[in-house]
Amino acid sequence: MFAKILVAVFSLGLTLATLVGPAALADGAVAVGQPRDIAADGWSIGMSGNYQNEAEARKRALDECRTSKDAPQATRNLCKIVNAGGTLQRFAGAKVQR
Questions:
Q1: In terms of Cα–Cα distance, which of 40, 93, 50, 43 is closest to 68?
Q2: pLDDT in the model for residue 96
Q3: Could you tell me if residue 79 is left (phi over 0), alpha (psi between -120 and 50 degrees) or otherwise beta?
Q4: Which of 42, 45, 36, 27 is CA-nearest to residue 81?
Q5: Which residues of 41-72 are buried (b: 16+ CB within 10 A; e: fewer)?
Q6: Confidence bin at 6 (pLDDT 50/70/90)
Q7: Are strands 27-33 and 44-51 parallel, antiparallel or unpaired?
Q8: What is the rounded CA–CA span in Å between residue 27 and residue 25?
């Protein structure tokens, strides 16, 4: 009987570790600098993922957006968070250069 209880507790612990473990490092964020005329002034983006908390994820995304070499400084100054938190688990982005 004790062995069955031990196996059940171990299985429950393993299941919880599998479910909770990855979620603990799942915070991410997206920051975008978007001027009125993207064609003329470009745009900037910064993404982060797998951070321990939302504040760290937000800071990294903003840093990435504000230091992009592909956009003028005026555009980088417009960077703001557009999505953040534990629900952001997968994100893909592309930027086409002309």
A1: 43
A2: 62
A3: beta
A4: 45
A5: bbbbbbbbbebeebeebbbbbbebbbebeebe
A6: very low
A7: antiparallel
A8: 6
What are the structure tokens assigned to 10, written together? Answer: 């171990």
Q: What tens digit of pLDDT does each residue of 40-85 get?
A: 999 999 999 899 999 999 999 999 999 999 899 999 999 999 998 8
- The DSSP annotation for 16-76 comes to HHHHHHHHTT-EEEEEEE--S-HHHH--EEEEEEEESSHHHHHHHHHHHHHT-TTS-HHHH
pLDDT computed for residue 12 by the predictor? 38
